[in-house]
UniProtKB/TrEMBL annotation:
Protein name in UniProt: Peptidase A1 domain-containing protein
Lineage: Eukaryota, Metazoa, Chordata, Craniata, Vertebrata
Family from the record: Belongs to the peptidase A1 family.
InterPro entries: Aspartic_peptidase_A1, Aspartic_peptidase_AS, PEPTIDASE_A1, Peptidase_aspartic_dom_sf
Pfam families associated with the record: Asp (PF00026)
């Protein structure tokens, strides 16, 4: 069963904030069973690393692709460094990891931050609480040195969970947000802004290349763009407004016929979501057009028919971005093929779609804070 995590934060020490965000759809039930997860991680274990090319100002950090469902990378916190596996997420702005103070059962399977073992840790009196679709957490805000490979953010504020529920079997320790500071749920400066302000990166740009069907090869890069990860032109799309990785989308079509976003709509480019999300009524129309049949929470098609299905075409800033059937279909644990889309549970006043990893495996993406724009190009 696929699921989304919905976050709300209540900042107890200050005013009450209620901000719904679509979050990470981590794993399917068939893959989240502990024995299957352990087997996968053991089979595909390798060291995540960071490289900087000689003479280049680009810092490239490796991510691991777990079953095309979630991409994780290693960071360290504290002195001496303690290592954590996190999702690098463009839809949120905060960094959080589990704490040694956490006594919840789910924390027993995660790496816990030991603040008392870090000589550079600073405590704050700020507390926060996050409610999820199928879980929750409470925590405190601390400050310490955070490293993403060779990149170092000193005195970085981050969240430490002290209670959390619903995280059992997940292949991650925490989340590292890469969105704008104005949507920070803890009210803290995001790590990307700290790196920029401290001069650790030369340009206020980061980018993602997400591999397909293999654990290795995915990267997030900071400070510039490595052109070897895409082909053709890098097309720039202005943000609807500075402060969120959200762009205007012209239409969604199948075989030249518009099936959604008829009068234009909004699209959130989200590395923390694994699928395409949209309004139920319009998703149902697309699924019917593809001949998909409901089974449980999924919509299935014959695997033998996948190569005959049309692409789903997303028109953004007058440029068409086709998503072929082999990109938007996946196989479940029994080898049956389903369409990897789902209903956006967040009600909005305007039609809003979320372009998650299904889309971003096909298109290399660049996030330019200096010019408030996103770049898209065909991934290699």
């Amino acid at each position: 069963m696929k699921w989304l995590v919905l976050l709300w934060l209540v900042a107890f020490s200050e005013c009450i904030v209620n901000i719904p965000l679509t979050r990470v759809k981590i794993m399917r039930k068939t893959r989240s069973e502990k024995n299957m997860l352990k087997n996968f991680l053991k089979e595909h274990a390798y060291r995540l690393y960071q490289t900087s090319s000689p003479g280049s100002n680009i810092a490239t950090h490796s991510l691991r692709n777990i079953d095309d469902m979630v991409y994780v990378g290693n960071i360290t916190i504290g002195t001496p460094p303690q290592e954590f596996q996190v999702v690098f997420d463009t839809a949120s702005s905060d960094l959080w990891v589990p704490s040694i103070l956490c006594t919840s059962p789910s924390c027993s399977s995660q790496v816990l931050f030991r603040h008392n073992e870090s000589s550079t840790y600073r405590h704050t009196n700020k507390t926060f609480s996050i409610e999820y679709g199928r879980g929750s957490m409470k925590g405190v805000v601390g400050r310490d040195t955070v490293r993403i490979g060779d990149l170092v953010s000193t005195d970085q504020p981050f969240g430490l969970s002290v209670e959390q529920y619903g995280f059992e079997g997940m292949p991650l320790d925490g989340i590292l947000g890469l969105n704008y500071p104005n949507i920070s749920l803890t009210g803290c400066i995001p790590i990307f802004d700290n790196l920029k302000n401290q001069g650790a990166i030369s340009e206020p740009v980061f980018a993602f290349y997400l591999s397909k069907s293999k654990p290795e090869g995915s990267v997030v890069m900071f400070g510039g763009v490595d052109e070897s990860y895409y082909q053709g032109a890098l097309n720039w799309v202005p943000l609807i407004q500075a402060g969120d990785w959200r762009v205007h989308m012209d239409r969604i079509s199948l075989e030249g016929q518009t099936v959604a976003c008829y009068s234009g709509c909004e699209a959130i480019v989200d590395t923390g979501s694994s699928s395409i999300l949209g309004p139920r009524r319009l998703l149902d129309k697309i699924l019917r057009s593809l001949g998909a049949k409901p089974r449980g929470s999924e919509h299935y098609v014959s695997c033998s028919a996948v190569n005959t299905l049309p692409s789903i075409d997303f028109s953004i800033n007058s440029i068409n971005y086709p998503l072929p059937a082999e990109a938007y279909t996946m196989k479940d644990s029994r080898g049956d093929c389903f369409i990897n889309v789902e209903v956006n549970p967040v009600s909005t006043s305007t039609e809003t779609w979320i372009l998650g990893d299904v889309f971003l495996r096909q298109y290399f993406s660049v996030y330019d804070r200096g010019n408030d724009r996103i770049g898209l190009a065909q991934a290699v």
